[in-house]
Design brief:
Aminopeptidase, 11 strands, globular, M28_fam
Length: 408
Amino acid sequence: MRRFCSARALLPLAVMKCCFALIVGAYAVLATPFSRSETAVQLPLVEGDLNYPGIELDLNERRLVQLHGQDPRWMTELEKIEAKAQGLRFFDITETQDLDSLARPKELRKSSFPSPNSTEQVKPVLKTLSTAGPKENLAKFTSFRTRYYRSDTGRQSQQWLLSTISEITAKYASESLQERISISEFSHSWGQNSIIASINGSSTEDDSVIIISAHQDSTNLWPFLPAPGADDDGSGSVTILESYRALIAADFTPVRTVEFHWYSAEEGGLLGSQAVAKFYAAQSRNVIATTQLDMTAWVKRGTREEVGIITDFVDPELTDFNKKLVDTYLDIPYVETECGYACSDHASWAKAGYASSYSQESAFENSNKNIHTGNDRIDISPEFSFDHMLQFSKFVVAFAIELGGWNA
C-alpha cells in the first residue's frame, strides 16, 4: 500500500475542500476543556492539518461493503468515510466475504444462561475495582493524536496497550496463574493489530470460551484530523482492562476459558472483529458468549445514570442474562435501547453464528455526541464520569465469573 501524507495526493483541491466541508465543517477540532480538580487530566494533543504524515489511506481504494438489507457493493474508502458521516453503519467485508458461510447454526448451540448464582465469588472482586487505573491509562491512551487503524499513532497506541496489559499481568497475576494466561497480537494487514488476553480454563472436558471485548481504535469523521477517542472507545478499552486486572489479582482461575479482546479497526467497518470471528469460526471454536463494551463513560446532564442494554441484533437469551447481572451486581439500573445494524463489534460475532451482546453508557439517544471529533476528550465535560465506567467494570467481572466459573 502506498503511503500518503495527505488526501490531496489523491483528489483535486476543489473536491478535497468540498469533502472536508461536508464531513467536518460542523465540528470543532478541539474544544476548551472543562476544568475541575477531580477530573483526570487530558494530555495535550498536537494539532495538525490535512498534511499530516503517518496515515496510510488510499481514498480511491475499492472496498466491498455490506449495509443492512442490501446486497454487498463496492465503494471507495472516501465513499465509506462519507457513509459513516451520514450515520450509515456497515460491515467492510472485503477480507471476510465467507464469514456468513462459516456461521454456526443457532440450533447447534448447547449453552443456556441461568440466573446469577456466584455472588460469594463475584462480590469480593467488585470491592477491589478502582478508578485510579482507568484514569491513568485513559489519559495516556487519549494522548496519541489519533488511534486510527491506518495511522502510525494507531499502531503506537496498540503497542502501548499491549505492553500495559503485559505489565499488569506480570504485576498482579500469581506465578501459577501466569502459566494459564497468554497475551497475543492478532495480526492485520493494516498494521494496528487486535489484542487477545486469554485466561485458559481449568476444565479438560469443557472447551467453551467466553469473550469480553472493546475496540481500541478511534477516528475523526475526517480521519486525518485528531481523534482522542476518550469515550469511543477508550472508555470501553480501559474499563475491561480494569476488570481484567481485578480478576487476575484475585487469582481468578476459570473453569471455561475467558478471553479479553481489544479489536482494531472497528471504525473502518468492524474489520478487526470480523477477522477474529472468522478465524474462530473456521476453527470451530466453542464460543458460548461474547459481550462488547463500546462507550462506558457518559452520563448526560439531567438524565438518570443507567446501563444501556442493546436489544437489537443481539442474542436475546444472553441479553436477558446481562440484565440479571445488572440487577444483581450493579448500583444503577439498566435501560433497553437499540443501536442499529453493525453498530459495534458484537455484530461480527452474531454474523459468525455466536451468541453476542452489547452494553453501553446509556440509552442510545443520551449517549456522547462528541464522538468522532476532536472533542471526544476526558476533560470536555463533567458528564464524562470514571465512576460510571466503574459500574461497567463490575458488570464485566460478574460476566466473567458467572459464565466462566471459578475453580477456587
